[in-house]
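INFO batch 0412 | record 1 of 1 | parsing
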Amino acid sequence: MPRGGTQGMKRILPWAREFFQRADMLLFALCMVCSIFGLVLIASATAHTAEGSTQYLLIQTVALLIGVGLFVLFTVIDIDVIADKWIILYIVSALLLIALRFFGVADDTGNKSWLRFGPIGIQPSEVIKIIYIVVMAKHISYLKEYRDLNHPLSVLQLAVHFGVPFVAVVLISADLGSALIFFFIFLLLLFIAGLRLYWFLIGAAAMAAAIPFLWSNVLRQDQINRILAPYDPSIDPAGDSVMWQANQSRLALASGQFTGTGLYHGPQTQSGGVPAQHTDFIFSVVGEELGMLGCIVVIALLLAIILRCVQIGLRSHNTMSMLVCFGVAGTILFQSFINIGMCTGLTPVIGLTLPFFSYGGSSMFSLFAAAGLVSGVKFRPKAERFRRYG
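INFO prediction complete | emitting tokens
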């Protein structure tokens, strides 16, 4: 081997050894197991299509490799360095939303939530979601450390910070699912940070006053129907319109019983009986072909990732790092709960994928980037108090 190559290896090997020792390899392993499991499910879910599963697997595998690179990158970069660039992060988010306004492409739900570059599609909300967690965590931790988090001006700042991206996502893309994730993250981080209960009560009262206006002037009728249909049978009594996807999914789940029909042997899955079964309704594939046992394994894996994020956050002894970890955990928890609820007919169909399992490149690499942020908290422990923000 040339001398330069030998010296390069000597520099890389100690760095790699240190990375594997300090990074959270348990979290990485859990994410990889879920993603590879997801590839198997996507292959089965798309085997019946005219193009076969090859194209889907190729795109998902490329997204997974990008995600692994992002996991490494965000593990080794100091999270404070990322958060200190909050202005740049806000500009990136704004540019993505502006691009979506002028160049966005609607999906089959009518949500204008995609940017298309030939066969490649990017969902900006997946990227913005991760930026939002970091910047909101920085804002809350700054107010908690140097101001009074419960002061009315602090709460007003945070409300505006939440409201701008929330309203922008709703008005530009009409993507209610992504907007609800922002809302859940916002509430979770404030609760973890110690916001007083009376502010939540005031916020609930303000929401109750605003809902009639939003219901009448912002939401489309099809969105209203999707929200109410699981709880009001009169909206779709025959089950052949709003509730069609959920009903087909429940049929697939029920037919799998305890052990399932076997991969590539699900009648609903292999006939394409469940719309979007490789994306939003991948859980129906699990239930039909792997049965209740497979569903339990999927839920257990996702729960393990969530609990690991929470554990790292609690051990960080640093408010901002803890909030980032809880924000990532909360995102995966909320998405998983809503997605599984969609597939079982318990929650409205609002287009949220099952983390790590569903087909979707943007979701895949953004989740690995988020996991990298959590791993970075373990990789680079912080003092209990913040360093002063510039």
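INFO post-check: The radius of gyration is 22 Å.
INFO record closed
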